[in-house]
Sequence to fold (580 residues):
Amino acid sequence: MKASLGMRAGLLSVLIFAVIVGIWHVATLPTAASGPAVDPEYAKLVGAAAATGSKSAMPTPADIGATIWKHLADPFYVRGSNDKGIGIQLAYSLGRVLLGFGLAALFAIPLGFLIGMSPLVYRALDPFIQILKPVSPLAWMPLALYTIKDSAISSIFVIFICSVWPMLINTAFGVGSVRKEWLNVARTLEVGPFRTAFKVILPAAAPTIMTGMRISVGIAWLVIVAAEMLVGGTGIGYFVWNEWNNLSIANIVTAILLIGLVGLLLDQGLAYLARLVTYPE
Amino acid sequence: MENRPLISVEGLARRFGETGQPAVFEDIWFGIDRGEFCCLIGHSGCGKTTILNVLAGLDSPSGGAVIVDNREIDGPSLDRAVIFQGHALLPWMTVIGNIAFAVSSRWPTWDRARVQAHARKFIELVGLAGAENKRPAQLSGGMKQRVGIARALSIQPKMLLMDEPFSALDALTRGMLQDEVLRICADTQQTVFMITHDVDEAILLADKIVLMTNGPGARIAEIVVNTMPKNERHRNDLHRHPQYYAIRNHLVEFLVNRSKAFDREIAEHGFDPRRPKLVKPGLSAVNPPADVVPLRHSN
Fold:
């Protein structure tokens, strides 16, 4: 009997994971050599083991496991401005992403509708979109900080600006490529422009629009980490930067894994919504 | 004009591109009376679909006009329902949703229950009871076209416009749907304008068959009156009717030979585009003729 493809793939995944962890474990084993005498100040700073060189700052898999467990056991504590639970930091980042992304959707979907409906507007706005789309959202950060004068709002603005383009372009494309015969059905039934927009064009373009939203939320989640490293204060990006300053690799690795997990959930959530509006032809 | 038919096509012409380009068709004149089933036959590229789109109000002519009920067509209307070649159902709606969309467009003040009840009636009419909540993707080609027919009929239009409605279907399904269209149109006294390139379909369904010459510069060559009474037309024994071959041969002869050499005919016999000749080949040869044209016209 042969196990199903999914089963075998799962088994292979576990094997690959075990190999990676194994190599990692061997590579980070403490060396027994006693190093040269160490300045006690330095030893205090980086920890005795690291200072003597018997143990590198790179944690072992077991250290990481312990760290992850520690974070997950108490994710929402607040002990001062630089010591907040990882759940709180993730919540800050998620809040910024959802706010910036939501505002971008409110802006981009109606505008994309307009662009898709009117070849004139499409051609008039095309040069702006083409030039602004490839700009890294972080390049907007100084401009945002200068004009808005608030770092929290600036990071939301950066999320907004990076989420806008895929939604704008996909909405315009989806609306512009609604099948002519569906529009003709609406015309022969003397359906008014608003009813046509909501009952025919929107459902017809919905799968394309949802694809744009899925791309946008992915980019926004990528960008928030970098934006928070720049802006500081709160958020998972700030957490990563803060732990770099603490030279706590275990915390950084934990954050990387959690960032990946949240990104996966965001993507799957939108994929689920996309399935709801997809229609087979 | 005094006694206008329900639909009167007057001097219609259509050019694509710049002026000075030859017209796809020009000087098209014909009328359709109330309750009449009118077929338009011609080769591809002569502008049949364009004429139907002008009648539907989806396209505007370069010259001439279409008068319906003494008013010139200036856009689409719920009075003229279109059955599209590719059924054109909205794939995200169910069968009943598609029809209810049309019904509530026709009667915006109706409440939901009334719209649903009305839609259900027409789903039953086309024999789709039980499939109300299916999506178009779950239906066969013939069922989809039935939904298209139900949608068009449900708004109770003054006339039906059909653009080769059965051309994408297999022969068996096509035959069944032709029978149903014949029955429904007879029951409801519907005025119909249909494009086809199937000669037998035209003979089965139409009271009047308008023959169009090849483009560019296509014209109405003549109008064949189907003298076979409606109640004597049955798909299975159509070929046994004494008039059948005379009409069929006339149509095939036109499509094979005369449609491309019509200019020569005009030069010899003269031609008044405003009054296309009415011909009744069925009456001229009530007995089956000896020379049966064996060719079946294909697209």
The mean pLDDT of chain A is 89.
